[in-house]
Amino acid sequence: MSQVPSVLHGHAGAVGPGGLALPSPILAEGERAAIRYVEFFTAQIRNSNTRAAYARAASAFFTWCEGHGLPLPAIQPVHVATYIEQIGRELSAPSVKQQLAAIRMLFDWLVVGQVVPLNPAAAVRGPKHSAAKGKTRMPTRDEAKVLLASIPTDNLVGMRDRALIGTLLFTFARVSAAAAMRVGDYYPVGRRWWLRLHEKGGKHHEMPCHHTLQEYLDAYLEVASIEADKRGPLFRTAEGRTGRLRSQAMSQPDVYRMIQRRAEAAGVATKIGCHSWRARGITAYLENGGLLEHAQQMAGHASARTTKLYDRRNDRISLDEVERIAL
């Protein structure tokens, strides 16, 4: 704490720990407000993705307030409501709801810290939004087969890519969970092999390894020769075009670019990304008679409604019915 004030004094747009920009309305209220603002992002929010999203939302809101001559104590519910209505003309409803949640939580934190007396975002309602199906595009069953079969397995990078895509497909894993895996997170229990996924909120999700995925992982680990490095990352970045792997873990952008390359090489027409394999895996499981509640448990979802968003079985029914339209 003693080091925090030294980076808070100064002009508007000062930068706090971790490169966190401090808005002018916050700085204008003095050191106490600035420290409380920094603490919200550094101590209150543990997930790095959520922290970055909320920091962008707060920065955008306070930039808007500064542009309208609103100091922190003068911000009222009508101002928050006006801002939310304005960004709603450009952003989707889920994005607007996320920004409002960030503003509301930040002001709650400032109220508790006695920086402001009331939360001006508490009474503001966000846009209504409900979704029966997620927007994530997924490859068809044939496209998934073609893509996996097209990955060359005569080199280490190809075997890594096949094992990584297989992990996303057969475990319903988020890309962040798969990228965070260590070599020791693939381990035997009796005669079966299991996987330990590092999910959001520091939670670990463990599940048996599908036999096909086990073949992919075993082949990859044998060629990579990293079995002994239990604490090292499982999926590692490539060293240029040498075909060798570094000791660093792949990042989410690395995985996305890899999937784009593999999809293009395989001639996959559907625009897919990392999350597409989660949808493909859940849909394939349900198509083969799996139960929604089991898919929920395997995916690590708190609610079956979230799992249902990945169920695309009705897409095929809709297409069949559309084809009945004939003159």
UniProtKB/TrEMBL annotation:
Q: Which Gene3D superfamilies does the record match to this protein?
A: 1.10.150.130, Intergrase catalytic core (1.10.443.10)
Q: Which residues form the Core-binding (CB) domain?
A: 28-111
InterPro entries the UniProt entry points to: CB, DNA_brk_join_enz, Integrase-like_cat_sf, Integrase_catalytic, Integrase_recombinase_N, Integrase_SAM-like_N, Tyrosine_recombinase_XerCD
Looking at the record, the residues that make up the Tyr recombinase domain are: 134-324
Q: Which GO terms describe its biological process?
A: DNA integration; DNA recombination
Q: Which UniProt keywords apply?
A: DNA integration, DNA recombination, DNA-binding
Q: Tell me which domain of life the UniProt entry assigns to the organism this sequence originates from.
A: Bacteria
Q: What family is this protein classified in?
A: Belongs to the 'phage' integrase family.
PANTHER family referenced in this protein's UniProt entry, alphabetically:
INTEGRASE_RECOMBINASE PROTEIN MJ0367-RELATED (PTHR30349:SF41), PHAGE INTEGRASE-RELATED (PTHR30349)
Q: Specify the protein name.
A: Tyrosine-type recombinase/integrase
Q: Which organism is it from?
A: Siccirubricoccus deserti
